[in-house]
Structure formats: C-alpha cells, structure tokens
Amino acid sequence: MIIAKVTVPWPPSDLSPNGSQGDYRGKARLASAYKARCAMLMREKGRAVPRLPAGTVVSRIVVVACPPPRVSRYDFDNLAKRLKPAFDALADALGVDDGEWRAMVLERGERCKAGAVIVEVEVG
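Above: the chain's sequence. Below: its structure in token form.
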C-alpha cells in the first residue's frame, strides 16, 4: 500500500560522487542544504509524509527520475548517490532507518522543466 508520494527537486550535479574535486566542505554544505529543502517539502501541508509507528516495514521505495532538459544523460548509480540527502530526509520524516528499507526501484520518467524526482513509499 502506498502511504506517501512526494516530489523533490532534481539533485545538484555537485553532489555527484565524481565531482567534489577536493572541496568536501562545500559538498557537505550543499548536501545539507538539499536535505533541508527536501525535508521542508516532505512537511508541507497536503504533502506531508506520515511518521510511521515503530516496527513498520517499508517494503518498497519507488523513485521516478524526471530530469531537466539540460541534462543530456545520467546513470542510476550516480543519481542514487546524489539523492542520498533526500533519502535521509525521507527516513527522518518517516521515523525509520533507511537501512531497513526492503527494496528500492529507480525508474526513468519524462523530462520536466526544472527537473524533479518523484518518490513513493510503500509499506506492508
């Protein structure tokens, strides 16, 4: 059963594991800002991600990547790493450890103007 569906911004390219170029503090600040933005979106009225009771199993996370037009190509393993702050924000909002999620599905969606990532949470 899907309990939450939230759309977060396309992750900044500087969060790529290939792109820190030695500026680890700058990358950490960017990751923190992206996580805060995602957390804010997950708390917005009408989109709020519910806090789950202790022991609830998150059976599946479905991630649909809708890149902005300027992104010529991307690979899923790099995208998943760039989305780590968003996943951390989701785990915090749900009140569950993301290490306990059973499965994650990454799908390619249609391009959209600013780029977005749609995340669905299933339990059961």
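The mean pLDDT is 92.
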